């Protein structure tokens, strides 16, 4: 399906590059079927054209006219101005896929031409290594073919699940912000390793590989994490002693609060760009 689709990226940052890199590496789309534009950074466009062979232009209208699938890959704060500029240049039958965090589908439906099918997505930064955890949802009126197209594109950079839109802020709190929680944990594990006598380089290598191995165990065995935890927790052993400290320090509660606050912040930020009058003209 994607092979016969012309992609148009409105935004040329890290997320756009990750998606471009992913679909090209997977052989899903030819480079000459990918158009890219951005607000003002012409050097960035030249770099993408040189490295990937994609088509670039400073004219957003040209991208909108060429594309079957438009990818809104700008910063959330730039969405109002983008829609004011090109919203009505869209045409019925086009698919608009937004990866702008927190921006609800209704914001796009209010500004694009009737008949455009809108899909909202929340990938995470692991798309840069094609291991994103991504959730998608369709706006009212968006059909299964549009969702399948978005799923195929985003599947080139990781795993994709579909959720109702009212859960997208929860997704942001869990997997959208989740990589940062993991990085903080690795930082803490490395520092703890140093405190018990390890060299910092060795401590980091061990911490990272431990995380990678545990994740692969979860994926490849399909086992419940509680079961895997119990399997490595011997009564009276070292793991039990360490887990007891984490429980006493409120490890699970801290994570729950972090996810909830990040989800709340996603709702707050989304509200700032939810209404058309927020464009300021």
Description:
The protein has 281 residues and is an alpha/beta fold. It folds into two domains: 2-162, Rossmann fold, CATH 3.40.50.720; 178-266, ProC C-terminal domain-like fold (Orthogonal Bundle), CATH 1.10.3730.10. 51% of the residues lie in helices and 13% in strands. An eight-stranded mixed beta sheet has the order 3-2-1-4-5-6-7-8, with helices on both faces. Strand 2, helix 2 (42-52) and strand 3 (55-56) form a beta-alpha-beta unit. Helix 7 (168-176) packs across helix 12 (251-272) and helix 8 packs across helix 9. It starts with 6 loop residues before the first strand and ends in a 9-residue tail after the last helix.
Give the low-pLDDT segments. Answer: none
Shape: elongated
Q: Write down the CATH class of the largest domain.
A: Alpha Beta
The biggest beta sheet, please? 8 strands, mixed
Rg (CA only):
21 Å
Total count of strands:
8
Run of helices and strands: EHEHEHEHEHEEHEHHHHHH
User: Percent helix among the residues?
Assistant: 40-55%
Note the total helix count: 12
Task: Give a quick summary of the entry.
With 281 residues, the protein is an alpha/beta fold. It is 51% helix and 13% strand.
Features:
elongated; ProC C-terminal domain-like fold; alpha/beta; 2 domains; 8 strands; Rossmann fold; 281 residues; 51% helix
């Amino acid at each position: 399906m994607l092979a016969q689709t012309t992609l148009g990226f409105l935004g040329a940052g890290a997320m756009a590059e990750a998606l471009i890199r992913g679909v090209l590496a997977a052989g899903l789309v030819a480079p000459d079927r990918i158009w890219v534009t951005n607000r003002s950074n012409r050097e960035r466009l030249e770099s993408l054209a040189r490295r990937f062979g994609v088509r670039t232009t400073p004219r957003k209208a040209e991208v909108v006219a060429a594309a079957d699938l438009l990818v809104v890959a700008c910063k959330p704060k730039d969405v109002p101005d983008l829609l004011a500029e090109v919203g009505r240049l869209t045409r019925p039958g086009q698919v608009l896929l937004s990866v702008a965090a927190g921006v609800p589908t209704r914001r796009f439906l209010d500004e694009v031409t009737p008949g455009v099918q809108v899909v909202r997505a929340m990938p995470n930064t692991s798309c840069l290594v094609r291991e994103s955890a991504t959730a998608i949802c369709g706006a009212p009126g968006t059909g299964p073919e549009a969702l399948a197209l978005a799923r195929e594109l985003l599947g080139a950079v990781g795993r994709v699940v579909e959720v109702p839109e009212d859960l997208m802020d929860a997704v942001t709190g869990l997997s959208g912000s989740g990589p940062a929680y993991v990085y903080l944990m690795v930082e803490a594990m490395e520092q703890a390793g140093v405190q018990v006598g390890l060299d910092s380089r060795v401590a980091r290598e061990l911490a990272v590989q431990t995380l990678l191995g545990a994740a692969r165990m979860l994926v490849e065995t399909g086992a419940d994490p509680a079961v895997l935890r119990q399997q490595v927790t011997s009564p009276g052993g070292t793991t039990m002693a360490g887990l007891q400290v984490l429980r006493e320090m409120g490890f699970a509660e801290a994570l729950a609060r972090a996810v909830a606050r990040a989800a709340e912040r996603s709702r707050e930020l989304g509200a700032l760009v939810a209404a058309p009058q927020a464009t300021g003209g």
